[in-house]
Automatic annotation (TrEMBL):
It comes from Penicillium daleae. PANTHER family: AMIDASE DOMAIN-CONTAINING PROTEIN, TRANSAMIDASE. It holds the Pfam family Amidase. Residues 145-552 form the Amidase domain. PROSITE patterns: AMIDASES. This is Amidase domain-containing protein. Belongs to the amidase family. InterPro entries: Amidase, Amidase_CS, Amidase_dom, AS_sf.
Amino acid sequence: MSSDNITFLNYPVPREGPKVPYKNETQTIPVFRGTPLAIGATLIHNLGFLQSHFWRNAGFDVIREIPHLHEYAGRSDPTVIPVEKVPSDAPTPAVQKRRGDNCYYTSADYHALYSSGEVTPLAVVEALLPLVRRDVTPAGKHSTAFLESQVDIIRAAAQASTDRYKNEQPLGPLDGVPVAVKDEVHVTGYKRTLGTKLDFKHGTDATSWCVQKWQDAGAIVIGKTTMHELGLDTNNNNPNYGTPRNPHNKNYYCGGSSGGSGYAVGAGLVPIALGADGGGSIRIPSSFCGIWGLKTTHGRVSGAPSMSLAPSVGVLGPMASSIDDLALAYRVMANPAPASQDAISAQFPKPLPLAAGRKRIKKIGIVRDWIDRAEAPVRAVFDAALEYYRQHGYDVIDITIPYLPEGQRAHVLTIMADIASCVDARQIRHLSAPNKVLVSMGMWQITAQDLLAAQRLRNLIMKHIAHLFKTHPGLMIFTPSTPIPGWHIDGGENELSRGLSDGKTSVRNMEYVWLANFMGCPSISCPAGYAKDSGVPIGVMAMSDWGTEEDLIDFARDGEGILDMHIPSGDDSVWEDVISKAKEAGVA
C-alpha cells in the first residue's frame, strides 16, 4: 500500500536531495581491549586534548562542512504519525505452528498445547526459570542473557494464565506465551539499569505501554534481558553482567544493543522478545541470531514513562522466531496508548492487517555503491535474496541517496549527544571503559554547531527519502542488515570480561541499519542465509515509507522461501526444547 492512501502529521516535504557522488572508505581506528583499554579510557575521560584528538580523527567535523545544509532547517525528531488509514476488514492471520523438528516453536504451539491441556503455562515457566535465573547458585545455563527474573511475578502470571485455560477462557493467542523484554524498557517490579551498574528507573515503577499490551494479552514476561551498556555499541559486549554468545557459534557476538533479547529468541527460550534502540540497533541481533526483527514507526508507542534513553533516535520493535509471531507481537504492542498516558502515541492508528485482495506494488530500490560495501559472504546472500524477489514479481530499480557516509556520522553524533545529556558527569566513572570514552566525548566534544548540523542533514535526507517514496509508490529500500558476516570474539575471555573498543567494526556493523533509525522509517530484518565458515546467520533488511509496517510484513512473507531456517545445532548447540522440558515438568 502506498503512503498516498494515508494522511500524516509531520511527513517530510518531498524534495530531491543534491546529486553528490557516493564516497566512503573503511575507517582506520585502533582496537583496544584489556589493560590498555582501561588505561586509555581513564586518560581520555580526564584529558580534554585527547578527547579532541580522537574526535577529529573520527571525522565528525565533516558534517558541518556539507555545502547544502544552509538550505535546510534542523529536524531533531523523526516521528511521522499516520493519522488515517484505509479501513481494513481483513482478519488477523493466525500464527502457524512449528513446521518441523528442526524449526523454532511459535506462539501457536504453546497456545494449542495449553488449549488441549497437554501443557500448562505454569509448567512452561517452571521449565524456564532454572535456565534463565542469575539469582540462584549455580546460575541458570542461559542466565547471562537475562539481567533479572522476578519469580513471584512470573509464577503469578503463569498461574493466572493456567486458570484461564482450565476454565476455557484464554485471552487470546498470546495468553501464556513466554516473552522477554530488554532492560531498557520499564517493567513494574524490575530494575532498569540500561546495562550499567547505575539506576535509570528515575523513581518510577510503571510498565511501558508496549509491554503492558503484551501482558494484557496474557503474555508472560520471564525476565529482562541484558543489553550493551547504554546501547552504545553493536556487539552487546557487557563486562558488567556478562555477554551472551551467539547461539549458532559461541565464538561470535549476538550483536547489539539488544543482544540479550536476540539470544533469548535464537536459543529457543521464547518465541517473541522486545528490543529497543536508544543507541544500537534492534535489527543487528536479529540478523546475527537468525530471527526476524521489526523496527516500527510506532517508536513512541510506549506510554508513560519514557521508553528510550535517546528520544531523538529511540525506536522499538519485536523480535521473533517466525514472521507470524513478529506480526502478532507488533499488532498487539502497537495499539495506541490513551492520550492521558502519551499524547503522541494516542495519535497513531490501530495497526490493521492489509486487505488480502488489494493491488500490491512490488518494487525494490537499491543503492549499488552502498551495497557494494558488503563483504563477499554477505553480498552472496543478499544477491540471492534479491534474485528471489525478482523472480517473484518484484521490479528492481537503482536509486541514489545523498550523503550516506556523512549521515551515518550524524546519526552516531546524535546518539552520543542524546545519551551524554542523560548521564550525570559524576556517573561516567562508573561506566565500562569503552563508554567512559564515548560518553566523555559526547559530553564535552560535541558542540551546538555539530548537533544542529547533524539535524539539518537528517532533514535533508528525510526529504530526499520522502521524494523517493512519492516517486516510486510501494518502494522497499533493500540492503543487507549488516555488511559483515558476524562479529568474532577475537579477544576471548579477556575481551568479554574487560570490554572492547573496536570503532572500525562498530561503524561497519551499522553501515546499513542507521538509516531507518535516523529517518524514523519502519524496517524489517529477515534471515536469509548462513556464513559457510562459521554458521552465523546473515540477514537482509527492507526499509519502507512511514506508516507502512504492514507492507513490510507482507514483503517478509514474500521472502520466506529464501531460507530453510533451522534451529542452532551441533555439539555446542544451546537451543532449548522448552516445550519438551515443560512436558517433563508436568506442573498442573
